[in-house]
Amino acid sequence: MSNKLVSIIIPTYNRADLLRETLNSIANQIYTNWECLIIDDGSTDETAGLIAGYIDKDKRFQYHQRPIDRIKGANACRNFGFELSKGAYIKWFDSDDIMHPDFLKKQVAVLEKNKELGFCAAFSKIFTKTIHDASEDFIPQMIYDTNALFHFILGELYFLTPSSLWKREVLNDKELFDETLSNAQETDFNFRRLTENVRFCYIKDVLFFVRRGHKSIDSEASTNPISLQSQFDYFQKVYKALNINNYNIEKEKIEKLKQYIIYRKMHFFYEIRLLVKFNKSIKNFKSILENLKNVKLSYYDAVRLYVGITVIILTKKGFRLIHLKRFDIRIKD
Predict the structure, then answer these.
(1) 274: Cβ–Cβ under 8 A, 6 or more apart, which residues?
(2) What's the pLDDT tens digit per position in 80-136?
(3) Which of 81, 119, 198, 299 has the fewest Cβ atoms within 10 angstroms?
(4) 13 to each of 2, 27, 41, 212, how far by Cα in Å?
(5) What are the residues whose beta carbons fall under 8 Å from the beta carbon of 218, sequence distance 6 or more?
(6) Which DSSP category does 31 fall into?
């Protein structure tokens, strides 16, 4: 079996009470050739002291602070960690989740055996107190790379950030996590990898556990306009990409995806407009107007949407005008 170095990169912020379990699960990995870079996003609790104790016992652990000239947040920490890392394989992990002892061993084995793959993902379970209480599975509807981009845009295929083990060679010289996004940044990251035709596979084993029931480092309330704007911006990126390249997706599906993206952007536009002033909505309004020029619409739908976004930006009303359910192709007949 390969003995290539795996770099585990963990952003953290005020997680001293949870981080110990995470680090213990890493120390207990059967695959032992790893380095773990914990990137502190400015913690004010006992995080530094906790990690110092681990470093004293095991030099594979490292502690770094996010540079003050980088935007605060997990994205900058993940990118900074990658810049410091030395591994042939990259594993971004969260500071509250827990690895199964076989996690790295099984993923490295798959990537070593299948040279055409750029990354390997795995299933997970949700827990709140202990992994022995883990119940709900995190398993996408689609787990294969056939028509992967189409299913990914619809959310039928997804990759939790801790799930994937990456070959460094597919990440070098690429834009990684968008540090300007406070939401959808992981989806944005994976979308770009799929547009680059990076091959993947899913291991059909539960190999890590996702903690729920507390505030996440990246969590934003659904009423936070910055979070909503990040999701709006992600869908704009997708729309722009599909206008430039069809990525071998059938023309009919491209048109359906464009309508679906318009549908999602319209909803975020409405939610944002409810929370911000008129002048803060103009850019989004113009973005949707530009999108509508490049999507196939019936005369009725076009009029309805143009009127809808105009009513929304002027009055914060008009949701029913933009709520065209048939554009949401996630809904099965």
Answers:
(1) 316
(2) 999 999 999 999 999 999 999 999 999 999 999 999 999 999 999 998 888 887 777
(3) 299
(4) 33, 20, 5, 16
(5) 73, 74, 182, 183, 185
(6) S
Residue 273 CA to its chain's centroid (Å): 25
Q: If DSSP codes are grouped into helix, strand and coil, which group holds residue 73? A: coil
Question: CA 259, CA 294: separation in Å to the nearest integer?
Answer: 10
In angstroms and rounded to an integer, the radius of gyration of the C-alpha atoms of the chain is 21
Residue 219: partners with Cβ closer than 8 Å, 6 or more residues away: none
Asked if residue 4 lies in contact with residue 88, where contact means CB atoms within 8 angstroms, the answer is yes
Per-residue pLDDT of 213-238, as tens digits, reads 765 544 445 678 999 999 999 999 99
Rounded Cα gap, residues 165 and 73, in angstroms: 22
Distance CA 275, CA 223 (A): 8
Q: Is the pLDDT of residue 266 over 60?
A: yes
Whether residue 92 contacts residue 165, with contact meaning beta carbons closer than 8 Å, is answered with no
Side-chain-facing half-sphere of 14: CA atoms under 13 Å: 8
Question: For residue 11, what is the enclosing H or E element?
Answer: strand 6-12
Q: Which ranges constitute the DSSP H helices of 28-137?
A: 47-57, 74-84, 103-113
Q: How many CB atoms lie within 10 A of CB 107?
A: 26
Q: Which of 112, 85, 103, 124 is nearest to 7 (CA)?
A: 85
Closest CA to 64 of 87, 89, 90, 35: 35
Reduce the secondary structure of 122-149 to three states and give it as a string: EEEEEECCCHHHCCCEECCCCCCCCCHH
Residues in the chain: 333
Angle at 121 between CA 240 and CA 234, to 5 degrees: 20
Cα separation, 289 vs 311, whole angstroms:
13
pLDDT of residue 61: 98
Find the helix or strand (DSSP H, E) in which 211 lies. Answer: strand 200-211
Rounded to the nearest 5°, which phi and psi values hold at 203? Answer: -85, 130
Rounded CA-CA distance 126/131 in Å is 8
How many Å apart are CA 236 and CA 287, to the nearest integer? 8
